[in-house]
Design goal:
about 180 residues, six-stranded parallel β-sheet, globular
């Protein structure tokens, strides 16, 4: 298993629980890539996709992609770029969304329709995790995303945005999910 982490808007490769998860997985011998995506406060989708491809030229079934917040539509857009023989084993979307949240700085990630058939073909399994009191992402959006992907759907009760501000500097549930893959 190899894990690629996609951070949130305004974050970096060690934001929220990403640093903790990276350190924990690396200590167990897992390959982890958790880059600082460029222009984090005014991100451009094409720059984030270029950063992902700079780190991994071709993805395969050994890869797990984990996104938080803006990292989720970034992953979906990356899956749209996959070649015919390219596919990942698992995508985990935490505080995920795939619609315009009316935030101008991140609109370029969601301003065109998603190619759901291509996305579904590019990954074996999806897990979507959203909170029932997220101040930014309505729970219904997480449910809609999970339904669109045929994903396992996990509700974090009282989890806020599942970030440091909500008390998530570590995320044992996510580690448990990833450990279950070995």
């Amino acid at each position: 298993m190899k894990v690629f982490l996609f951070h949130c808007w305004g974050g970096d490769g060690r934001s929220c629980w990403s640093g903790w998860l990276s350190d924990t997985l690396i200590a167990k011998g897992t390959t982890v890539i958790s880059p600082d995506f460029p222009n984090t406060n005014n991100p451009k989708l094409e720059d984030w996709l270029a950063t992902a491809r700079k780190n991994v030229k071709t993805f395969d079934d050994d890869w797990v992609l984990v996104g938080h917040s803006l990292g989720c539509p970034a992953i979906l857009r990356l899956l749209e770029t996959f070649g015919q023989d390219e596919r990942v084993g698992l995508v985990v979307l935490v505080a995920g969304f795939a619609k315009d949240l009316e935030v101008p700085q991140i609109k370029n990630f969601v301003d065109k329709k998603f190619n759901w058939p291509k996305i579904l073909k590019s990954c074996r399994r999806f897990i979507v995790i959203n909170s029932d009191n997220d101040p930014f992402i309505p729970l219904d959006e997480g449910k809609r995303l999970a339904e669109q992907l045929g994903a396992d759907f996990i509700i974090e009760h009282g989890g806020g945005h599942i970030n440091e501000g909500s008390g998530y500097s570590s995320y044992p549930l996510l580690l448990k999910i990833l450990d279950g893959l070995k």
